[in-house]
């Protein structure tokens, strides 16, 4: 049951040409899950088929009035009304002074407790959002703003907070509005008339802030790149997939670590690298990554690119899918698109159909036939996790070669490195040095030969 104090939200979606009913419904359902993650209680949906988003307020006049009845607004976009500023999703924008009167006059036609938030399942322009606010009297967030708000709430590490703040400011910059004040005048000898307006000053401050954040982020990314280079010789697996597919649960099961697991979208934003358990020789590292979603804001992809480098530089990708979600084929396509964006499309990939415990026998059989190369499992099943562990080890074993190395007694420092990076099958000593029969990746062998 939602709390009486929980903010109420209305979802708004426009079904555009080329989008079928199922895809449209799935997208609105996902927006509802995003709303739940933000702590909103979704009380209604307003949907309309259109050739394009209405230029004024996303939906047509009739749907706008229907939406206003749910929020207690007027349903009309006022014109020529003095504006004052309100805060929308952390961004200050203009609303009309007449909104309060309009809202009060229409409140009796709306629900007992009007919705205070309107979520749009599209990216909308600042003017469209402003017009919707004027007509509904509610806070309006488009899809990108909702995702940014969730990322901001879930960012824990300094790197994640910097990445989200850069994306948030990039989103906010074009939505800054004139305050209505006079231009700042430049003074002194050689002045050339009007100086920067307040909006220009605000935008310059945002640009300067973004530049500083990028410098701070670059320093952190440099350290992360150095850590990845140190792991170059170690087999690495990256877990990728749609948000809330169960990546963190699987990471926890494979590595035995106590990671956050929550039934929320984007519960994990930070990359975590741990050793596969039971431990193998050589050790296999497993990295978790941020989840993907349809229409992930471009600025977020750009900001999190260094985090996603963990996937790009892995030897194997575990593409985790929520097999219990009816829309998972579309989610597979979204993940493939993001991997292509970060130049990871050609990496070896194992499709993992997770949450099999939620499927009946007939559905399991159908999925096994449709995806013969995938592994159908539940992260909650120890036997299933052990089967995945075996598949991972098998993947790296097939590239290993067997060879004998002679390590002279003057180079004994290499012996410990060999034991860490290779599987030592036999070992003997004679007058020439230490002979080791090993199995290892060819690149590791080449490096050891060069070091010796």
So how many helices? 15
Sequence stretches where pLDDT stays below 50 over 5 or more residues: 81-111, 178-193
State the strand order across the main sheet. Answer: 8-9-7-10-11-12
CATH class of the largest domain: Alpha Beta
Number of domains: 4
Strand and helix map with partners:
Elements (H helix, E strand, L loop, with lengths): L7 E8 L5 H17 L3 E9 L11 H11 L11 E6 L2 E6 L2 H8 L10 E4 L5 H11 L2 E4 H12 L3 H15 L25 H33 L5 E6 L5 H9 L16 E4 L9 E4 L9 H6 L1 H8 L3 E7 L5 H14 L7 E6 L6 H10 L4 E2 L5 H16 L3 E7 L5 H9 L1 E8 L2 E8 L1 H10 L1
Parallel strand pairs: 1-2, 1-5, 5-6, 7-9, 7-10, 10-11, 11-12
Antiparallel strand pairs: 3-4, 8-9, 13-15, 14-15
Helix pairs in contact: 1-5, 5-6, 6-7
List the keywords.
single chain; 452 residues; alpha/beta; Rossmann fold; 4 domains; 6-stranded mixed sheet; 4-stranded parallel sheet; 15 strands; 20% strand; elongated
């Amino acid at each position: 049951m939602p709390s009486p104090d929980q903010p109420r939200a209305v979802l708004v979606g426009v079904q555009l040409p080329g989008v079928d009913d199922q895809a449209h419904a799935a997208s609105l359902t996902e927006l509802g899950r995003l709303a739940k993650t933000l702590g909103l209680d979704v009380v209604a949906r307003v949907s309309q088929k259109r050739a394009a988003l209405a230029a004024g307020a996303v939906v047509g006049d009739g749907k706008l009035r229907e939406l206003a009845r749910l929020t207690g607004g007027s349903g009309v976009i006022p014109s020529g009304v003095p504006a004052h500023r309100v805060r929308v999703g952390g961004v200050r924008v203009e609303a009309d002074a007449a909104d309060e009167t309009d809202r009060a006059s229409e409140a009796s036609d709306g629900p007992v407790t009007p919705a205070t938030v309107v979520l749009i399942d599209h990216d909308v322009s600042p003017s469209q959002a402003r017009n919707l606010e004027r007509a509904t009297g509610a806070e309006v967030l488009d899809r990108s703003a909702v995702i940014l708000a969730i990322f901001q709430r879930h960012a824990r590490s300094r790197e994640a907070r910097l990445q989200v703040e850069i994306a948030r400011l990039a989103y906010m910059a074009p939505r800054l509005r004139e305050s209505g004040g006079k231009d700042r005048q430049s003074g002194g000898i050689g002045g050339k008339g009007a100086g920067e307006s307040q909006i220009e000053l605000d935008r310059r401050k945002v640009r300067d802030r973004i530049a500083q954040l990028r410098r701070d982020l670059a320093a952190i990314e440099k350290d992360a790149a150095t850590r990845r280079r140190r792991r170059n010789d170690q087999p690495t697996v990256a877990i990728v997939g749609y948000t809330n597919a169960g990546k963190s649960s699987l990471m926890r099961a494979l590595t035995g670590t106590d990671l956050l697991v929550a039934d929320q979208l984007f519960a994990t934003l930070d990359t975590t690298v741990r050793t596969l358990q039971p431990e193998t020789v050589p050790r296999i590292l497993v990295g978790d990554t941020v989840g993907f979603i349809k229409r992930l804001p471009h600025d977020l992809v750009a900001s999190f690119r260094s985090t996603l480098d963990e996937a790009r530089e892995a030897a194997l990708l575990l593409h985790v899918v929520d097999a219990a979600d009816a829309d998972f084929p579309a989610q597979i396509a979204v993940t493939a698109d993001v991997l292509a964006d970060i130049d990871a499309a050609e990496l070896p990939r194992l499709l993992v159909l997770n949450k099999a415990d939620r499927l009946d026998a007939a559905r399991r059989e159908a999925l096994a036939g449709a995806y013969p190369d995938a592994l159908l499992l539940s992260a909650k099943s120890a036997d299933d996790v052990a089967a995945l562990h075996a598949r991972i080890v098998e993947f790296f074993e097939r590239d290993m070669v067997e060879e004998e190395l002679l390590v002279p007694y003057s180079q004994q420092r290499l012996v410990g490195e060999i034991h860490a990076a290779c599987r030592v099958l036999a070992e003997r000593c004679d007058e020439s040095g230490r002979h080791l029969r090993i199995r290892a990746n060819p690149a590791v062998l080449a490096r050891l030969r060069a070091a010796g």
